[in-house]
Amino acid sequence: MAEPAAPKTTETAWSDERLAANPHQDPEKARRVREMFSAIARSYDLNNRLHSFGLDQAWRRRTVREVMQRMGRVDLAGVRVLDVACGTGDLSEAFAARGASVTGVDFTPAMLDIARAKASDRRLQNAPTYLHGDATRLEQAGASCDALTIAFGLRNVGDTGAAMREFHRVLRPGGVLAVLEFGLPSWAPARWAHRLYTEQIMPLTATLIARDRSGAYRYLPRSVDTFLSPKGVAAAASAAGFMEVRTSHLTFGTCAITTAVRGSV
Question: What pairs with residue 247 in β-bridges?
Fold first, then answer.
């Protein structure tokens, strides 16, 4: 898929009025998400590290380990991984470091530019391949990958059900799906602290660092609140035909990894 020209943002992608409603029901969600990520691409990694206190990388490494465990592998040499909504390539690189052959796909060209630049700057010997693509209409052939991952991206796609069906299509029988996504802590004090941080503090500091006018860091907590719970993600995977669906909760439930296997059908 040819990469589109970078969108020219003439308005706030996510205004307070739009976020007052459910952003996942916005008919222009896909365009607004791309404008948002185009606006924050350059500061995306910095904000991730600062505002997760470095845990975002630990969560990605845990995702790699979960996939390896589900596959019964001690390394990933020769394993074909498709990392959807790959962003700036952190999870793609984590899989490549374990020997996997990785293709990263993202809807936002500006994010792919950062991912490619990082791989080039680090002179990675097993660098991922980065392609523009839509999670709901993947160009990869059926049964063409051994593992498919998506980290903090499922809630940003236009149609969760369509994306899950595409994930099922491109995975080979026996292939592993891994979805890393935000959640809410179940313990009341942790949930209160989490909401205070993500809804009041983080939007202000992240917006200042990114010099963002797109509304990206107001969208983030709202998109988590209105998206599927980890149980909902597991149910969506089952509805798409996946089997052996399991969920692992991380950091008091701040996020969760849902893994599943594509059956033989």
Answer: 258
